[in-house]
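Sample A.
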Amino acid sequence: MKNPLVIVNILICFFVFISCKKDNTGSTTADKDYIVFGHFYGFCHGEQCIEIFKISAGKLYEDILDHYPGTENPYDGSYVLLTDEKYQLVKDMVNNIPNTLYQVNNHVIGTPDAGDWGGLYLEVTVNGQRRFWLFDKMKQNLPEDLRPLADEIERCISLVQ
């Protein structure tokens, strides 16, 4: 009599297992839509030289790797969760990204950190499509329509540092 129960339990487990839809992308919904922003300085010492943050799924994270961003690929960080209070300070940043930015195909805008004045990093990922830009911190080297965005990135960094 135990054999039929064992077989039924095995069949139930099997059907539950095969009926689950798997996400083969290796990411979660929270990873698919997010913003990464920060600043970087090449000739600098200390933790404050590279500050990278991520807004995702209603939360704010800080990168703990502090690697200098490259110009060829988006930044790959390792993030730790910050407080909700800090998230509340920067949550509206996405609303300050001008549509004109999405027409900029070059990843580098101006000459970020060329004269040891630092650079800004911004990455926007929507539906798994990652787009990133490195901005010059010298505003006169930026197109006029992107200068308010540079100010907003700097403002958000100062609020959560």
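Sample B.
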Amino acid sequence: MPVLDHFHAPLSEERHWEGFHSKWANVLVDELNQTLLPKGYFAEPHIHMGPRVEIDTFEVQIISTEAGPSLVAAIELISPANKDRAEHRRAFAVKCASYLNQGISLILVDIVTSRHGNLHDEVVRLLPNGDPYLFPANPLLYAAAYRPIRRNETEQIDTWLVPLAVGGPLPVLPLALTSELILSIDLETTYVDACRKLRIV
């Protein structure tokens, strides 16, 4: 099914986007724990909103238990508050850049149509030599995957950038847990499942 506009009428008058983001995060967690993750890993949702937290978070965390619980990858579902003002965009970008600098793989998904601001570009501008990773265009909606990796004694970040559009499909993106273990995250299938479970379709 195509990506819907959860932030404008008529859908925004019938459903709360916060409920959808929460459900999508939980569907991703279920898919990871029930199907994709091998022994020694688990996924859990981290959802925080409101004035008492620095930034809104609709996040799926993948934890490795082999060397004590440690975060190895994350999926971020961007919210309107992440994009609505410069300090919020900066805080979100700093968090994501910190993950990448720690070697934590990352997927960003932005289907927010009610705010402008490309957080991918804000993230890579915080990285050393990040300019080559900027989006060639400046899409309102997009999905992006990042894999920190060391090659020839040099720290690098592989990136996959996919512009999105209301009415268009969602991609399958890679999420690396180690240099050898890379999962395929089917954003389309999990999106459709979340919509169905909330009776949006």
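B remarks: DSSP finds six helices and eight strands in the chain. The CA atoms of residues 18 and 71 lie 24 Å apart.
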